[in-house]
Amino acid sequence: MISFLQIEKLTKSFGDLVLFNDLTFGICEGERVGLIAKNGSGKSTLLNIITGKEGYDSGNVVFRRDLRVGYLDQDPYFEPGKTVLEACFASDNEAVRTIAEYEKALENNDTAALEDLIHRMDHLKAWDYELRIKQILSQLKITNFEQKVEKLSGGQRKRVALANVLISEPELLILDEPTNHLDMEMTEWLEGYLSRSRVALLMVTHDRYFLDRVCNQIIEIDRKQLYSYKGNYSYYLEKRQERIESQNAEIERANNLLKTELDWMRRQPQARGTKAKYRVDAFYDLEEKAKRERDAGNVQLNVKASYIGSKIFEAEHLYKSFGDLKILEDYSYIFARYEKMGIVGNNGTGKSTFIKILMGEVKPDKGILDIGETVRFGYYSQDGLKFNEQMKVIDVIREVAEEISLGDGNKLSASQFLQHFLFAPETQHSFVYKLSGGEKRRLYLCKVLMQNPNFLVLDEPTNDLDIVTLNVLEEYLRSFKGCVIVVSHDRYFMDKVVDHLLVFRGNGQLKDFPGNYSDYREWKEIEETKEKASLAEKQKKDIKPSQQSNKGESKSVKRKLSFKEKKELEELDVEIPKLENEKAEIESLLSSGTLSNNDLMEKSARISELIDMIDEKSMRWLELSEI
Predict the structure, then answer these.
(1) Are residues 157 and 184 located together in one domain of the fold?
(2) Tens digits of per-residue pLDDT, 269-320?
(3) Which CATH number does the domain housing residue 96 bear?
(4) E-strand spans in 339-424?
(5) 548/29 Cα distance (integer angstroms)
(6) Which residues contact 209 (CB under 8 A, 6 or more apart)?
(7) pTM (2 decimals)?
(8) Angle at Cα 323 formed by Cα 321 and Cα 324, nearest 5°?
(9) Residues 376 and 265 in one domain
């Protein structure tokens, strides 16, 4: 296989903190690599090093020469004031740079530069770049190309950045949390796109279904060491467990042997010290191995929630809308004791607004929301991450409580609780500003849980959390003796935690579905298949025999085109191929090297006109064909 990227003995540290040491791995053609590590272990730092955004202490990062690399940042930034389309043309990829150079050469009548640029435009398929970017934006449900980027939601910004990366057709794609801020529909679209593509991948994501269905190799950074597994996420889980059991057994054997060696060290005469130097050295190696932390595996944390009565909350005929956008319309529901509800739906359908109505942050337009007297909320919000950065981690939690009850007479101290959520003792006494973004999310989660609520409301808790933390949180929620409402785009998380779903379909339509997300997805696919079959049958019945004999009229009836629109569509069917043929002929002439300077300038100007005409007519054809 052709090597695309080779990392050799890479070391990175921040002062005394060593993130990784002598890291070595490679990515070859066709490999789809998922990178897994705890928050704070250096995942994003490693991607920043590979993409040249950050330096490193020692080692080598080597790309294959002329490799096309695409990079999707975790939090993409676009310059304010630009439209969606302008933002796409402001991206730093080879095609966009070549288009800019070509237009400048055309403007300056630089025939010498044009000859080379025409070949590059051909190679990069840059002549129809704008049409292709519009097509991929449309697939990603971005249709207002003139919208200003600062008006976009987080999910829309991620989709524009994703379109920018995919349009460049990279050979190696580097993705940092690609599913963050994407709804489930868009996550599944990207999953399918990457599964069908031949592009090589290096990806950091906490979406375990995504890892399982897209990746064919998993690499894990654990305790500054790298472990590689040739397989998907399910295979990784199996082999990782074997590794942990083997390491734990090795530590156990080292502890037993250490007792014998320790006794020998204490009893040995001073004179024998030099003769048994190898054994003394081996003793210190053994001591280091025995001191390694055993992996606790899936430890359950059965925290007792505070008492909750039989009345939780009752919604009676709730209405909420923002202008023409309906969120709730005559919604009524009685929430049951110990219920675990998952909320799903596309971005913009009102999931977070519903949560804010429940928490009293937003008032409904009409209706009553009656919350029981014993309900004690623990609210994890998307925008609730606010800390005094100069405080120590342990003090942030101690501000809430010194200890938490386990319900069996036992208690956990704030330090023990933090340790369960993967904050080592040395990290607990560090300042908050030293934490990574994911570690701050984890600390915020601990702060919410330490309040000992009986009703947890979690709005996108899985964003920026690593997989290890997600596993801990899932186990916590499964054994939680209280109520839970969770909004999340993480399908794996929802499958493990919730009893049923509240599905936001848009325009105030809500559906209560009895089951987890995979159950809902399966049911939805069956319903969509039935609906398509029913529609096809209806259309078949609606077409009269006389219409069936005339294809043109049948098309008119089915698509409900006016006579004028039908005529326009037929003309476009003829015009677009003609323009495409003319464009192909000019491209051939431009590449021939036989044109004079004047002809070269004339043909270059004409091809720009043709591209604009093809774009305009193709978009109109799409509009008419979808009627």
Answers:
(1) yes
(2) 554 455 455 555 555 565 565 555 554 444 455 666 778 888 899 999 999 9
(3) 3.40.50.300
(4) 340-345, 366-371, 377-380, 403-405, 411-413
(5) 50
(6) 191, 491, 492
(7) 0.72
(8) 85
(9) no
